[in-house]
Automatic annotation (TrEMBL):
InterPro entries assigned to the protein according to its UniProt record, in alphabetical order: ANTAR, CheY-like_superfamily, Sig_transdc_resp-reg_antiterm, Sig_transdc_resp-reg_receiver, WH-like_DNA-bd_sf
UniProt domain Response regulatory: residue ranges: 9-123
Gene: ntrC_1
Pfam families given in the database record: ANTAR (PF03861), Response_reg (PF00072)
Segments forming domain ANTAR: 129-190
Position of the signal peptide: none
Gene Ontology molecular function: RNA binding
Biological processes annotated in GO: phosphorelay signal transduction system
Descriptive protein name: Response regulator
Stored PROSITE patterns: ANTAR, RESPONSE_REGULATORY
Source organism: Oceaniferula spumae
């Protein structure tokens, strides 16, 4: 686990200075690089968007209403995995944070034996989350391309009185000859049809 965590850039936000110093000390002992720390949710949000750490370890900032929004806002702009350090009575706010890029939580006070495996888990879960996100984006792109190809086939079938298969083969040949993607050919067909209309 040590090798996996070595050099990971962490930003620490906690309103309690003693707890924050303890967290920083544990993280540095785990060979992680603490790139910043703060007692303010607003400052944490600004710094994390500028520095883009690999991980955020944060308290809930009870005096800032509601402090967890900073973590959610960071996640909306730049997905960064987060670990919440909370008190038992803060579980409602923790559940809100878990809906975003906060991957896990620990109950205060924490020690190295709690923090080390949890950080490892958070990083692993975030990597899986990113993979799923990329797969989802790729799937969306495939579906969008299919829709364009279907539309372009319809245009060619109407213009040249072709069968669906012949229209597809014609597009495939253009893609091969020009060394471009089928989706790009579909875009050209649709664009030219709109110009002619």
């Amino acid at each position: 686990m040590e090798n996996r965590l070595k050099g990971v850039k962490v930003y620490v936000g906690h309103q309690d200075e003693t707890q924050r110093s303890r967290l920083v000390s544990i993280l540095e002992k785990l060979d992680m690089e603490v790139v910043g720390e703060t007692s303010s949710a607003a400052e944490m949000e600004k710094a994390c968007l500028a520095k883009r750490p690999d991980l955020i370890v944060s308290g809930l900032f009870p005096s800032e209403n509601p402090g967890v929004d900073a973590l959610v806002s960071i996640g909306e702009v730049e997905p960064i995995p987060g670990l919440i350090i909370a008190k038992k009575e803060d579980m409602e706010a923790v559940e809100k944070a878990l809906e975003d890029h906060v991957m896990a939580y620990l109950i205060d006070p924490v020690d190295e034996h709690d923090l080390k495996p949890t950080i490892y888990l958070v990083i692993k879960r975030f990597e899986q989350f990113q993979e799923l996100r990329e797969e989802n984006e790729n799937l969306k792109e495939v579906i969008a391309t299919r829709k364009k190809v279907e539309r372009a086939k319809g245009v060619l079938m109407a213009l040249y009185d072709l069968t669906e298969e012949d229209a597809y083969l014609k597009m495939r040949k253009v893609a091969t000859d020009r060394r471009i993607k089928l989706g790009e050919v579909a875009d050209l067909v649709i664009k030219n049809a709109q110009k002619s209309a």
